């Protein structure tokens, strides 16, 4: 009865606040600190009641917030006498009501005003952040004190000695206390809620990151131990534990909720406006980024990389276990991808460490698994973007392309055609699957897929026959006249694919007989592209009957889904001879994302034939013209491929006629020992398109990150039914 009575008292207290002005006695406020769980608080205080309190009784709401902060502050100054239940409920109460205050512009400013009748001119937000930071290292509340003595003042605690987990900056392994994990999680939830001002404020608001800026500033004495605690608690987590099957069903894992919220707070605190300022690292304002950028010990990099890899790979191990569902599966891989991105972006030494060994492949495979698994799920389109952007970042370095030549042994259950080959083959097959899956929302990524292939192509030593066929199929699909003439940006896809072929031919001819053979076998694809008619009449005829973008899109999907058929070799029978190209015969509840950043803005490079980056949006009235088509067709980089065909097709035809060959293995053997030294055009320089940070991509990552956090925090539903401005909430 006692527990039920306290629930009734609390609900009555909230109702009184909406109807009775200025209730200020301590007994009344004490009723607010007795709910048992965070779900009790969320259930007892509906959002409409909070808005009513905010709009009709602002003084009462302000008093409620002051009392909650006061309760937290008292505990900070008297840690030896802390009433844990009251403090936690004060924190939960603020977590419940803060989003409804942040959605209102005037109340956002309220947090940054001094406390009335207070002794300090500090704004309420600063006081709250300082108190919460101190409580993250409060003995017997969130940490275990080494000597067991009671502490009367948290300012005497050296928080660097109480980092939550061994790892970066700490070798101490603290004891595992479930209650401490729960209390840390509640504090971190409130911090995350405070940081969410950015999802309510207009993009033009320069103060939208002020909570994060204040928390991560050097003025926070705990900024280093908080950063390392969050990083270490994430990277040290092993959901499998001792590896006993089904152990997660027998024992409650008190660490996982803490790891998840710690990861979310960490990536949010690594957010900043795009351009760094002064000092050597460029990140002197945000000390989370500053410290991340300064990590340099290889043992720290190893700890971080192994931790991220282990957690990203967890769903693979969980789904491929011999015993169904015997391994615990964690679901915060989207946040992990954001953390990996931040680590690579802000610490180049870390990225170079990742690329230095084949460990980069241990990261690549789970990324490819996740983006392949999400290809038909419209709610996870952002995950695919995030994974592809990470691969684009890595592909800008030579070592990544070189590492891809390591043979691939299937461990992940990736839904692609079976093959025997390297990680380069795996990359091509997954990208081909994503391009041909029929999900039109992935079309904005086609440029990124092909740019990654271009970046790694000079280093691909031995593509499999399966991957070679997929590459030629993409040329076949993207070079159809109607597709080329349908959009001003479509020809760039063909330019990128031809660049892939040229790089392999010029720099990795030896060992790539499978690709050379496929080019020869499907040579008509290249002949037809070379002989494409681009006069006005041909363009009009090609586009006639294609009235709508949706019709174009449907036909493109059908074309992409048609695989390159394994036709028999297109060589003449004995006694016949033809090596001349054919003459032209005429034209042959999800959170919404921001628009995908244009590739040119991400890499700083424009297309092979464009004078300036094209807009992502194609005007409705745009129509292909003869001048436009002639401009890009005259620059198609077909010379190397046409020269290869000119030299090798007669040789292959001759050997087929002379020896009566019909077995492609014999032709492959001939090509393996062939050479084009001195016969091809002068090798072109290798052009690598590296990712460059900019305002547009920063905005995209912020929207994606907060969209994920919004959707993942449903127990309790912190931001549900609030007026979010940063992204659109799409409900079924």
Automatic annotation (TrEMBL):
One record GO biological process: cellular response to carbon dioxide
Name of the featured protein: Protein CBR-HID-1
Top-level taxon in the UniProt lineage: Eukaryota
Low complexity: bias regions: 572-592
One Gene Ontology cellular component: Golgi medial cisterna
Region feature (Disordered): 544-592
UniProt organism field: Caenorhabditis briggsae
InterPro entries, A to Z: Hid-1/Ecm30 (IPR026705)
